[in-house]
Amino acid sequence: MTADTQVTDTTDAPGPAGGTLDAVGVSAWFGQRKVLEQVDIVMNSGEVTALIGPSGCGKSTFLRILNRMHELVPAATLAGSVLLDGEDVYGTALALTEVRRRIGMVFQKPNPFPAMSIADNVTAGLKLTGRRPADREALVEECLRRASLWDEVRGRLTAPAGGLSGGQQQRLCIARSLAVRPDVLLMDEPCSALDPTSTRRVEETIGELKEQVTIVIVTHNMQQAQRVSQRCAFFLAEEDSPGRVVEQGPTEQVFQHPEDPRTADYVNGRF
Ligand code: ADP
Ligand code: MG
């Protein structure tokens, strides 16, 4: 889409509460190897859903399936469906660019464009939407505020993003994700590369965002899962079996009164 055909977005206010994401019977393969088996999880708007479980049990694969990034891997196949507010994410009614706009992703390693300015990083994703904000400066400020970064960078918006600390870069990536007005934000171990102070800042940001954006977070940090999430799903891949959800429910229940002994062992650090 060229600049001429861009629509000016006059709705500069944050959107309403995020979308509900519903994974139904999701199985996944890499080549012949099955890595996920029949995963059913509803990720509600207004909530943070934490995905926990040992390495290799398919959490990142599941997260990528939710916004069709799974398709980028050669030989990756899929069964089941993912619904965003009832619409099939893999169906023809939703364009791929719309799926990626509505379901954003934040990765373990902060990945801003280092040579680009802080402000330009925030708006870097807007090309994808074909819309341009009525007031770009206001959008930059709003997104940086929502990502709890504004106070730290307001005096140097034209400085390169590469000069920020790791924790600041991660919040900048969150701000960039927010600029396209997503319904859902997927976060794959967003604090694993951060120090404890930065981790706290990101956790606070997640707590504030969840009223507007549905959040799904993969974390290996059991305290973090309990601090930030309202619902939790425990993934496990036993021996050569694909990853499955062993148990899910309200986070407090999964941690305080797990029904499955394997959940109890995992959340109490016994494997
Ligand atoms: P987790 O995030 O829980 O650590 P992953 O989703 O990364 O787990 O991986 C699940 C399984 O799928 C692992 O056995 C991993 O080796 C395999 N896998 C992940 N990505 C690929 C890929 N691109 N090609 C082949 N196998 C993969
Ligand atoms: Mg992973």
Describe the structure.
This protein is of the alpha/beta class. It has a single domain (about 20-270), classed as 3-Layer(aba) Sandwich (Rossmann fold), CATH 3.40.50. The protein has helices at about 60-65, 95-100, 120-125, 125-130, 135-145, 150-155, 165-180, 195-210, 220-230, 250-255, 260-265; strands at about 5-10, 20-30, 35-45, 50, 75-85, 85-90, 105, 130-135, 185-190, 215-220, 230-235, 245-250. The chain has a six-stranded mixed sheet with strand order 7-9-10-4-11-12, sandwiched between helices. β9 (about 185-190), α8 and β10 form a beta-alpha-beta unit. It is globular and about 50 Å long. Keywords: ATP-binding, Nucleotide-binding, Translocase, Transport.
Please give a quick description of this structure.
32% of the residues lie in helices and 26% in strands. The chain is built from eleven helices and twelve strands.
CATH architecture: 3-Layer(aba) Sandwich
Shape: globular
Order of helices and strands: EEEEHEEHEHHEHHHEHEHEEHH
**Total strand segments:** 12
For the record, what is the CATH homologous superfamily label?
A: P-loop containing nucleotide triphosphate hydrolases
- The CATH class, by name, is Alpha Beta
What proportion strand? 25-35%
The span between the termini is 50 Å
Q: How much is the radius of gyration in Å?
A: 19 Å
Instruction: Give the CATH topology.
Output: Rossmann fold
Structural class of the helices, strands and pairings? alpha/beta
Protein name: Phosphate ABC transporter ATP-binding protein
GO cellular component, one term: membrane
InterPro entries: AAA+_ATPase, ABC_transporter-like_ATP-bd, ABC_transporter-like_CS, P-loop_NTPase, PstB-like
Keywords: ATP-binding, Nucleotide-binding, Translocase, Transport
